[in-house]
Structures are given as C-alpha cells and as structure tokens.
Amino acid sequence: MLDERKLSVLRAIVEDYVTTREPVGSKALAERHSLGVSPATIRNDMALLEDEGYITQPHTSAGRVPTDTGYRLFVDRLATIKPLSAAERRAIGTFLEGAVDLDDIVLRTVRLLAQVTGQVAVVQYPSLTRSQVRHVEIVAMSPRRLMVVVISTTGRVEQRVLDVAVDLDDSTVAELRNRINEAVDGKLLSEMPDAAAAVAEAMPVEVRPAVAAILATMVESLAGEGEERVVLAGTANLALFGTDFPGSIQPVLEALEEHVILLRLLGEATAPSQVSVRIGHELPVEGLSSTSLVSSSYGATGVGHLGVIGPTRMDYPGTIGAVRAVAQYVGRILEESS
Amino acid sequence: MLDERKLSVLRAIVEDYVTTREPVGSKALAERHSLGVSPATIRNDMALLEDEGYITQPHTSAGRVPTDTGYRLFVDRLATIKPLSAAERRAIGTFLEGAVDLDDIVLRTVRLLAQVTGQVAVVQYPSLTRSQVRHVEIVAMSPRRLMVVVISTTGRVEQRVLDVAVDLDDSTVAELRNRINEAVDGKLLSEMPDAAAAVAEAMPVEVRPAVAAILATMVESLAGEGEERVVLAGTANLALFGTDFPGSIQPVLEALEEHVILLRLLGEATAPSQVSVRIGHELPVEGLSSTSLVSSSYGATGVGHLGVIGPTRMDYPGTIGAVRAVAQYVGRILEESS
DNA sequence: CTTGGCACTCAGTGCCAGGGAGTGCCAGCA
DNA sequence: TGCTGGCACTCCCTGGCACTGAGTGCCAAG
C-alpha cells in the first residue's frame, strides 16, 4: 500500500512541517527534498496518504499537515533518533554531577530537560515502592507516639508520625527497630508487607497487635500511591507554542496541574528503560489531546519516570534523543550516590 | 488637587474597566454611575487625572485606562474590601478542615485560593526559621553518620544526614539528644544557634568540637534560606487573562517558575498579618510588571505567607477579601493541629 | 465651575479586487 | 502501468478604501 516513496513523502512532510510550522505543499516538497519525482507525482502520493489518514489539509487550497497517525507512523518507522552532540552530553554530565542531594538532582534534571528540549519537562521522584530500603528508624517521641523514618537507596527520606494504642517502652521500640531493619534491609518497599508480617510474629505476644497495627500503617502510608511526586519545569515554553494549540493553552496548563494524571501517564509507558512516545489523542486526557508525551523510565530498576510534553508538532528525533540521554545520566547519578 | 468628585471618577473608571476589560469613556461613565454631572465635566476631570498620571489612553479617541499609580490610589483610598459571603466562608472552613497533614493543608489552601479568586495562588510552607521546635531527634545510622530530624509545631518535619569526623557512641548521642531537646524545645528555630552553642559547651570536652560542628551544620542546613518552599496553583487561569498581558504570558510563567523570587516577594510584604498589595511595576521583577500581587502572612507569628498573582486589572476588593479570609483560616487550622 | 456644541482623531469593520499557493484532473508519453 | 506537464479551479491572504462610531479637546455661554 505504502511504497518506499510514499513513506519518504510522509517523512518529508513531517520534517518540513515541524520546522516551518506551515502546511507543506507538493511544490515545496519537490524543491527542498530530492525525491526524484515531479510535484504532480507527489500530489498523487499525497492524495493517497490523505485517504489513508496520515495527513490532512486545513482547507481546500492549502498544503498538508500530518495527523496523529501520521506522526505515529513517522516515529515508528521513519525517524532515526538524533543522538546528542558530545558537547551536549558533556554539559549534561557536569550539570548533573553538581547536585548535592536528591531534591537537587530532581530539580536540576527537570530544568535541564526543559532547557534542552525547549518544552515542558516532567520528572517523577524515584518511586518509593520500587526503591530498596536502606534504613528504617523508629523513634518514640512519647510513649504512644512513634516517628518512623524510611530512607531509600535513591536518597528519598520519608517520615510519618503514628499514634499507637499501647504504651511501648524504649527497649521494645529498640527491638522493633532492629528486627525491622534486619527484615527489610535491601528489600523493595513493595516487599515490606510480607517482611512486616514476619516481624510482628516474632515480637512478644502482648505487643503483637500493636506492632502489627504500626507496621500496617507504616507500610500503607509510605508505600501508598499518594507518595509519588512529580516536578515540572518549562511551562513558560508552552506560551511560545501558543499557536499550536487550538484556542488556548489553558486546558494544557490545567492538565499539567493534575499531578496524579501526569503520574498515571508516565507510569503507563510501555517498555521499561526505553523511550515511549504517545501522540495527541493517544493520550487519554482531554486537555492534552494536541500534545505529545515523550517519556522514559530511569534507573536500573525503572525506579522513576521522566518525560517531555510538547505540541504534537515537535521534533521527535531530537526530543527522543534528549529524553533518552537525560534518563541515562540520571540513572547513573542515582547509582553513584546510593 | 483631587477633590471628592475626581476620586469618584477614578473609582468609577477602575470598577468599570475591571469588569468590562475595555477603556472607559466619559459618556459611559455618566450613564452607568450616578455622578450627577455631565460627560463634559467628567472629561475635564479625566484630563486632569491623566495629567496627574492616574489614568492613560491607549490611543487618541479611546477611553481611559487606569495606570499602576491609579490602581495604587484606588487600593489605598477608594476601595472597600469585599468580605466573603457567609456561604463562602463556610465552604472554606469545611474544605480546609478535611486536611490530614501539613502537605495536605498547603495543597488544599493553594487550590482553594486559586479557585476562589480565579487567579494564580501562591502559598509558602510555614517557615522553619519562624516556627517553634517541637522535637529534635538524633539517630546514629552508623558510627560516623547521624540523622537529624526536626519537627516544628506547624507540622513540618525536616531531616538531614550528617557525616561527622569522630566516632560517637550511643550514649553520647543519647545525651546529645536529651540536651538539645531540653535546650531548644519551644524555641524558635532562629534562636537555635545560641542554644546550640550552650549545648556544645556542656558536653564532654573530647567530643566538643565534633558536637559543635554537628550543631552548626544542623542549624545551617535546617534554618537556611534554601529550605523555604512555595506551592502554586491556578496557572491555567493566566491563559484566561491572556489579553491582559502585553504580547504573551510567557514571561509571567517564567517568573512564576522562579520560586526563589516568589519567596522574596512574599517576604517583602510590609505590615504583618495585614494584606499587602503590590501593583505592576512596584514588583521588582521584569516578567511580573503587568501583574499585581496580593499577599498576606498567616499564622499568629507570621510563620508563612500566601498570596495571589493576577493581572493589574484585577478585582482588588474581592481578591483582598479572599486572601485575608483564607490567611485567617489557615492560621486557625495550623494552630488547632499543633 | 459646569454645560452643550462642535470639529477632529482614529481604531475597527466590511467590502472588493488581485495575487499566490496549492490542488485535482486529464491527456500524453515511456 | 506509472510519471509528467498543463490547466482550470478553489480559497486564503493582503492591501486599499470608505464608513462608522466612540471618544476627545476646546470653546463660548450660562
């Protein structure tokens, strides 16, 4: 159905449209790309591509514009990812090296990504549920109030204050601390429920229910969905692409404020440690129907995700390259600092 | 210079312009407001108001628009703050009551403020330096690595991991913990340096330098500028006012991403526990020169700030009322939960 | 000091014609 | 069968033009 030349035409249309922001016509294509055929032939091909739904015209006597499916085909079969230049890679490296703690790493990453791609960057904090536990600290603030602090290998530190129904003396707390650390050290937080159950079993019978309750609360509050966090940067870049969004960037900004939704989108990315691209209406979010999301997980265990959101008319090869590179660097930095 | 009637004219211009978004002319003023004089008289007044710099015309043969100084005069002398309706107050109360922890309080507050005012809301986390210390916990994670956790009465919990040069055994750490808690309990974090010095003095001489170093690092890292945080909501509302910003909302969005700057602006607000209004070029930030900031501190001790950022052409009486009300409620909630 | 009248300015709108980019279709050619 | 050049057609965009209407500044009279 689509022979080699028609694919070339589609590629040329996407590339030209991305750079010029204007519908591209057959004559311009014949001039700017060496397709070896006349405009008339290209017109025939374009008519067919339009029938197949890959391109469309804004109005009768205008050039063609890629559709979502057109971009999809381009990304899947026609684009070759643009690797970053050596200088760019070096800049990324040194910029991220300078980070002092996890907050700083995430902040730098998201700003970097926004700056490199010129679009909106999204970075998720390393997910606690996928991180390994490095240390658990339990402190009795008062006889019936405990503070639990969990430190992950990725550097996240989360704490909760729990009220318990039974007085717990210091030695019991100390024992609990030791047992918990023994049980969960190096484990994924998602494995904690099982480990916690075992710990409760091993404690003296009179405190067992209290301990079980503590552990349950602890696991729930630390490993819950609510603990995922994302950070954004570069929303100002949206205003530069204002014309790319039908009407207004308002719905886009609204969608970006819903961090829960962003987290879901990032999480839905398919293959681990590979860049995923979701285009226009492929994103199941109203306000983002004219944007694309280029995302990837980072870290060896896919401990978090990051991505870039921009208009569907974006430079996919470049953006994919940037996202991939940044994800790699962040993963490396996190491993070094753990 | 400005008699009563001219002030009324200015007030009428501001009110009309805020609602209609269009330059207002003498005839319209005479019709919509009962000023008791003819359009011609109003024209004379307007000419004078323009000479004084309170209003301006976008072009000849257009109506008048308030200038920054015009708004300033309006806010200072002409506006009567619009208190929220009973229903609104009730809604605020119940919405904020539902919060489960500090993060939740802040999140709900900022969303509420954005929703009520229809503009961009900014809420600063309770400042650690102005909070009282409720509890300090020191935990030896390994002989040379300590974790320090500080809990404030406002519910903020901050932790740091410190590496120390000397081995500290458990009993020393325990003693340190007790002494610190004794010394700083109920004190403002800003008073900690003094308290810390006294603690170091009282420790055994061989660990004294190490302890002093720990305390110094601790105070510095916890009470430093870097620890202030702000949260935004309602940036999407900016797009609705797009036409109010010359050119683009891009510089505004950019400025909003600079949290450090926002913090500075919030902190500069003058009178404590009173609503401060800064209009247009009064804000020393390039990108915000066509916006106004209505802000207030909250909490009895002015422990944090919150505010609203919108176009200079905003409903000042309503916004001031909303900011004041929300600040009061947040303060109350924080006290209840402390 | 206020008021009505009057001339003037100028943004905004609707209309129209011309130019241009682009398309679809068709007939001819390899 | 597929490519190509030619041609008529569509429709957006631009610029010019006249017109309207809101609004102003000024002035003379009350």
What does this structure look like?
- Two copies of one chain form a homodimer.
- With 338 residues, chain A is of the alpha+beta class.
- Chain A folds into three domains: 4-78, Winged helix-like DNA-binding domain superfamily/Winged helix DNA-binding domain (Arc Repressor Mutant, subunit A, Orthogonal Bundle); 86-127 and 228-337, Beta-Lactamase, CATH 3.30.450; 130-225, Enolase-like, domain 1 (2-Layer Sandwich), CATH 3.30.390.
- Chain A has helices at residues 4-20, 26-32, 39-51, 68-78, 86-97, 102-117, 170-184, 192-202, 208-223, 235-240, 250-257, 259-268, 316-336, and strands at 55-56, 65-66, 120-124, 133-142, 145-152, 157-163, 230-233, 276-279, 291-298, 304-311.
- A five-stranded antiparallel β-sheet of chain A has the order 7-3-10-9-8. In chain A, strands 4-5-6 form a three-stranded antiparallel β-sheet.
- At the A-B interface, strand 4, strand 5, strand 6, helix 10 and helix 11 of A face strand 4, strand 5, strand 6, helix 10 and helix 11 of B.
- Chain B binds a DNA duplex (30 and 30 nucleotides) through helix 2 and helix 3.
